[in-house]
Amino acid sequence: MLFARILRRPRNPEFPLSHLSTSLAATPSLSVESENRTFDLDLVVSQVPVRKGCEEISQALIENESLRDVEVSHDAVDRLLTKFRDDWKSALGIFRWAELMGRRFEHSEEAYDMIVDILGRTRQWDRMRMILDEMRSKERVRVSTVGKVMRRLSGAGRWEDAVSIFDELQDFGLEKNAEMMNLLLDTLCKEGWVEQARSVVLELKPHIPPDEHTFNILINGWCKIDRIDEAKWTIEEMKGYGFRPSVISFSTIIRFYCRHGRFQKVVDLLDEMEKTGCPPNIVTYTTVMHALAKADEYEDALALVERVKASRCEPDALFFNSWIYVLGRAGRVEDAVRVFELEMPNSGVLPNLSTYNTMTSMYCHHGEVLKASALLEHMEISGGCKPVVQTYYPLLKACFKMGKTDVLLSELLDEMVNKHHLSLDLSTYSLLIHGLCRANKCDRAFVLFEEMIGKDIIPRYQTCCLLLDELKQKCLFYAADQVEDVMKRL
DNA sequence: TTAGGGTTAG
Q1: Is any atom of strand B within 7 angstroms of residue A179's beta carbon?
Q2: Contacts of residue A5, Cβ cutoff 8 Å, sequence gap at least 6
Q3: How many angstroms is C1' of B7 away from CA of A425?
Q4: Would you list the domain boundaries of chain A?
Q5: Is the CB of A255 under 7 A from strand B?
Q6: For A299-345, how does the pLDDT look when each residue is reduced to its tens digit (9 = 90+)?
Q7: In which region does residue A242 sit, left (phi positive, over 0), alpha (psi from -120 to 50) or beta (all else)?
């Protein structure tokens, strides 16, 4: 019964390929390859029409003279899809356009996975299904594809659909094995469907015996929804199957107690781990250290650093990031910089994007915006990582805090969009609209509001309320009506 | 294929 349900198929796919091939035939010059074809991301991005359907977008791109000599490569598609990850219409339009532009162009595995994920996260289920069916017919469905589909379905509450994807695995040319079962369970549990995951385990037990991962996934699921008794009971069940609880099982339970601030329990468990020959590792320590910092217990958190040094654990980037975070929160900026500049390199651990995000946020938090900007330059040149929208949140927030809502804000936005090709996401729009409203610039906030609506990014209700109030106060009634219209649809 | 971090809004 559980596995008999079928994911809805599109009754009338809105994007038939035949239609596009007709338009390709109508523009024969497209099939002629020029010798000097290059790829200019800015050019393509600038030619993507706004507020159009995906079909219109791909059509407009195909007919665009200035894009005739554009070289479409896998890397180009990757960058474009990343850029439009919050804007499914543009993403799908570009995806279709690329198929028609490149001669005998076949999308890469990554591009397929990306478009599936974009359609899933924006809840375009029929279109996601359509791509999945295309992939199936070309035998290009991978484990990662299925994982993305299941995750998006579970995340949207469609756990039954996620389960029926598992039922379809053979149609996709994939095997129903423990790995795939665990993938399904993990997506279910991470979205809180733990009881459903347990039913799946029981139902599949005769065909696919649970392994150590299966139990750890369930333990994590129970902890996530605060059902610690079931988590402990799962540990007993695990033993019954002949598996010893691992450092992962213990660390998961420890994380639960950390989240609830029950640090005496944490200490007891750390001792138990040592005694039972399953000593904590760097992940366990990082979890506890971070939780202590969040509970403002900085001295205890830093004492753990000493414990790590005395142990055999190899510190990694996540550990250093947490250490820097602890020091930042404790107001010890100089010490944090010392860890970043000396301790990390001395241990041979390279900073990653999160290290830079943590440092940036710490600087901004302490009013050192210039140092934060300088670090952004540094991260590209010597760190080899590119900033993401999240990197800019603290910087943008600092702009509003300092009242620099003209030049500095514009420069930052320009850097984000034009230099790094980042797309503003829901959080950025919310931050900007809230900030501009508070800075008495609701006219500019409204422009951004319209822009996000055009990209199908749904504003938060509170954002609408705030903007509406401000617009009414300034007697901008036309704009206020527009906001009210959007609110009615929320 | 299972466990850890940061960045937004309220």
Answers
A1: yes
A2: A160, A161, A163, A164, A167
A3: 13
A4: 1-140, 296-350, 351-402, 423-490
A5: yes
A6: 999 999 999 999 989 999 999 999 999 999 999 999 999 999 999 99
A7: left
